[in-house]
């Protein structure tokens, strides 16, 4: 069975809630590990076939704060041959910076030579049942 890791950073719990729903979906096809980014060294992700990163956006277009160190250390890893996908909740009241963290992490993954296996999942507003359904649907695309 292929191995997947979900690494999430979450200030008020929304990204974490999405990560749990995604784990449920991916567990049907992968051996899944789900970790808070604060406890994760970027080199760990090299042990997995699929790497899913989840970050909310804060401070007008920045990564969730726990993701900062991980993001900088991504410069030390080569993701060639790795499958990567990115998700995050946000709020469209922030207009131009809506879910910018998803774009920032996708750009970094590309720069580190990863293969992005699906368009980033961006969720606007409250994490309700529909959000959980939609992230699970998104998860079915990740191979
Ligand atoms: C002070 C503040 C700044 C925020 N900045 C942004 C932003 O720039 N872009 C965005 O899409 N959402 C922004 N948000 C919304 C959060 O990303 C959203 O509430 C998200 O669900 C939080 O997820 P978390 O609990 O996993 O951290 C902001 C929220 C607050 C309170």
Which structural category fits the helices and strands?
A: alpha/beta
CATH-defined architecture: 3-Layer(aba) Sandwich
Report the uncertain regions. Answer: none
- CATH class division: Alpha Beta
What Rg is obtained from the alpha carbons, in whole angstroms?
A: 14 Å
Number of E-type strands: 8
Report the major sheet: 6 strands, parallel
What is the total domain count? 1
What features would you highlight for this structure?
143 residues, 6-stranded parallel β-sheet, alpha/beta, Rossmann fold, binds flavin mononucleotide
Can you describe what's shown?
This protein has 143 residues and is α/β, with parallel strands linked by helices. The chain has a single domain, classed as Flavodoxin domain (Rossmann fold, 3-Layer(aba) Sandwich), CATH 3.40.50.360. The protein is built from four helices and eight strands. Strands 1, 2, 3, 6, 7 and 8 form a six-stranded parallel β-sheet that branches. A two-stranded antiparallel sheet has the order 4-5. It is globular. The protein starts with a strand and ends with a helix. The model has no long low-confidence stretch (mean pLDDT 98). It binds flavin mononucleotide. Flavin mononucleotide binds next to helix 1, strand 4 and strand 6.
